[in-house]
Amino acid sequence: MKDRYLTVVMLAVVIGTAVLLYYPTFKYTLVWDDHDIIYNVSEITGASNWLDAFRHPVDRLYRPLRSVSLLADNTYMPVPFGYHFTNVMLFTAACAAMFFMARCLLGNTLWAFCAALLYAVHPVHAEVVPWITGGRANLLAAPLVFTSVALYISAARRRDDSGSRGFDRPGPALHTKTDMKFAGLSWAAFALALLSKESAIIVPCIVFIYEFIFPGKDTGLARTAGRALRGALPFALIAVTYLVFRTSYVDITGQFHHYHGGSRAATLISMIPVFADYARMLATAQNMCPVYVPEIFHSVMAPVVLWSAAGLAAMLVAAVALRRVAPVATFAIGWFFIALLPVSNLIPIASMKAVRF
Fold first, then answer.
1. Three-state SS at 25
2. CA angle 324, 328, 330 (to 5 degrees)
3. pTM for this one?
4. CA end-to-end distance (rounded Å), the chain
5. CA 16 → CA 85, 108, 159, 180, distances in Å?
6. Which residues contact 314 (CB under 8 A, 6 or more apart)?
7. Is 178 helix (H, G, I), strand (E, B) or coil?
8. SS3 48
9. Which residues lie below 8 Å from residue 140, measured CB to CB, with a gap of 6+?
10. Which of 25, 48, 257, 342 could bridge across to 199 with cysteines, CB 3.0–4.6 Å?
């Protein structure tokens, strides 16, 4: 009872801190493309039938849950306060989901509280929360991604404790109602996250590295890799289904069809310093702004590119070295690199660099 009370208090502190930090945004107005997207979204998706949001992209982006949420605001609170209130509430949901995911991963409520509080106060969210249309998709996807991963970790830990070797392999206590409920809810949360923002597609990779880094009772590379693949497979099937639907039925492959650097090679080379700067921003929380114009590099021998690549390589080496002594650190570093994939411009996107990414 005491532990439950302490959990509730810690969660209340995290949520209260998030609300206090972004309470001033309730007085903000609309900025940038908020006007166009908010006041035209009902015409684009069909105000008479919200299901049309699942059939029509907005601004060449297939994010139907963002459209549905904006339609809801436009219907029930069609004033700037209403849109900003929704953004702040979604951010508090993301903080709460981070708390529970961290507790599942760390197995310690106090450390989970510290992680969630750091997530709530980190300045990296200062663009996402106040910007209604630019941040709404992130704020919808984040709590769903965290919830999906938290539920999967919970099911995996229960499976390990019972001696089972996977959701689809014989073993003690396999396919208990609780295990399957957690797994099913995890898959459902992932599917909803994909409908919020396409960058949620990283979840299968997150599940894979979790199983690889925390192998439980399995030993040996082959068995660990097999277990990781089995864990990620249902998520991968959901992701493939989403991609097929998105490309064939909705006919959306990407927002842009040209590379910022003029070619794929130049763009990817130029992204190396961008990735390094993301790591710096997460670590120092300094020198962030809403608009960036990254320098284009055409050679990997450019000093900035070399130094950036060296720093990123050092992070990867540290992740490998820490796998056995500090697996949570390895998992965090792995998550960082996986999260860069959707914004790496392998498939061109609107911006090369943005804090909201």
1. helix
2. 65
3. 0.89
4. 39
5. 14, 21, 34, 33
6. none
7. helix
8. coil
9. 65, 66, 69, 90, 193, 196, 197
10. 342
Comparing C-alpha atoms, which of 251, 253, 269 is closest to residue 261?
Answer: 269
Q: Is 113 exposed, middle or buried (0-12, 13-18, 19+ CB in 10 A)?
A: buried
Q: Which of 59, 33, 37, 56 is nearest to 46 (CA)?
A: 56
Distance separating alpha carbons of residues 102 and 276, to the nearest angstrom: 25
pLDDT in tens, the chain (357 residues): 567 888 899 999 999 999 999 999 999 888 777 777 776 665 554 555 677 777 777 777 888 899 888 888 888 887 888 899 999 999 999 999 999 999 999 989 999 999 999 999 999 998 899 988 888 999 999 999 999 999 999 888 776 655 444 333 333 333 466 677 888 899 999 999 999 999 999 999 999 999 989 876 656 777 888 888 888 999 999 999 998 888 877 666 666 667 777 788 888 899 999 999 999 988 887 777 777 778 888 889 999 999 999 999 999 999 999 988 999 999 999 999 999 998 888 887 778 877 776
- H helical segments located in the chain: 2-22, 34-45, 64-76, 80-106, 109-121, 132-162, 177-196, 203-213, 221-244, 264-284, 303-321, 327-340
Give me the amino acid identity at 29. Answer: T
What is each CA distance from 301 to 71, 269, 297, in whole angstroms?
49, 10, 9
- Token pair, residue 265, equals 């090679």
Identity at 308, one-letter amino acid code: S
User: How many residues are listed for the chain in this entry?
Assistant: 357
- DSSP-based three-state secondary structure for 89: helix
Q: Rounded to an integer, what distance in angstroms lies between the CA atom of residue 250 and that of residue 118?
A: 38
Question: Do residues 133 and 34 touch, judged by C-beta distance below 8 A?
Answer: yes
User: Hey, is 288 helix, strand or coil?
Assistant: coil
Q: Residue written as tokens 């750091």? A: 118
